[in-house]
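Weekly modeling sync, notes
Attendees: S.R. (lead), two postdocs, one rotation student

Agenda item 3: backlog of single-chain predictions. S.R. asked that every request posted to the team notebook include the full sequence so nobody has to chase files. The rotation student volunteered to paste the first one in as an example of the format we agreed on. Action items at the bottom.

Example entry:
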Amino acid sequence: MNTEVRYPPGPRGLPVVGNTVDLSYDIFGFFEELRDEYGRIASYEVFGTEACMIAHPDAIQQVLLDSHEAFEKGEVLTRNLADAMGEGLFVTGGGQWQNQRTQVQPAFYRNRINTYVPEMRTTAEETVEQWRDGMVVDVNDRMTEMTIDVLGRTLFGVDVTENPVVSEASDAILARFDTSRFWSFLPDRLPTPTNRRYRQKTDELQQFVDDLARQRREQNPEHRGDDLLSILVEVVEASDLTREEFRDNMVTFLFAGHETTALGLTYTLLCLAQHPDEQAALRAEIDAACDENLTAKDLPKLEQTENVIDEALRLYPPVYMFFRETSQDVELQGYTIPEGTTLVLPQWAVHRDSAWWDDPETFRPERFADDDDDRPEYAYFPFGGGPRHCIGMRFARMEMKTVLATILNEYSFDLVSDPSPELIASTNLKPAEPIEIELEKC
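Predicted structure, as returned to the notebook:
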């Protein structure tokens, strides 16, 4: 019997820091080079921490779905995000995660989310009403403001745009986890200015959520709205969900929900701005789908719009990698990976892998209209997969469709900024420079 343990190959790093310098210099290029030179299961090291890149779709399916019990969120994620959302769904595991998911899931059922579409459309219309023919728009700024507004209305039932606490906390989190900065790999306990600001702003965000929750609890239940805050306040009152878990989940939904959707919209508009033919096709689809105001029942008809969104998320996944940690020795693609190893599942490197995608650098939405039985399911996983797939996936997709339909109903647009913008790998994949479009009234 062969008992040889095969650990995945990988580059030899520097003493002490390992491969940290290469990672901070170009994290996307690092994982692509790792994939091409060492294979789709490969090892590396960050400050003495052994890590493995998992970039083969079959292995990703094993980690996220088939054998998900053998993997946990891991110290890298839980330690780094504990200050902001340590008791929330994104970070917790085991029985605590399962209990939270069960309690929170009804708030994300399709029939519940359908009721939010009018707010999504109204918010998008208010944004577009401020635009003018010939105007140049900074897409990410506008989409971020819009998605914060949408989440404020649907999540909290209040206008959060007048309070800078959300945007300031987002900026602080971005700076803390910007992988192009060497300090993002340093322990969070070090009192650097970035770490201090991160803690201060996340504390302020948590206090903001606590105050809103207290106000809602003090309301007569009959006078509460149907926003997510009211729903979860009732869940806390009727279950064993703690107030800390409640708060950290609200912070998770607010931060993760607005930024990932804003970035998805930003990159979709970046792609569409370079393809006027696609804009025209989507506009025709939207005109055919609804007579007047777009409603939830119209959204499933926007199939081509969904293909465009999928292709933009393939090229520019807002969540560009997932972390897991082995809770036992596991075998992946013929390699044995020891218990306690940090695993990185990089969407960026998988979504742009020519083994699974023909001409992977090119924007081709029609590839999602074709049924490609040869492509592994987990060659595309912008929202994760398995039991821990993103709980807000349906909400995000509905919002993106609604916003795009609202914009395209009024304007066509051309890109006036760099078609290949520099990107920042932080908690999410963010543009390092403005993405700007010039509007033309339809």
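Discussion: group reviewed the output briefly. Residues 155 and 321 are 26 Å apart (CA to CA).
Action items: rotation student to repeat for the remaining queue; S.R. to check formatting next week.
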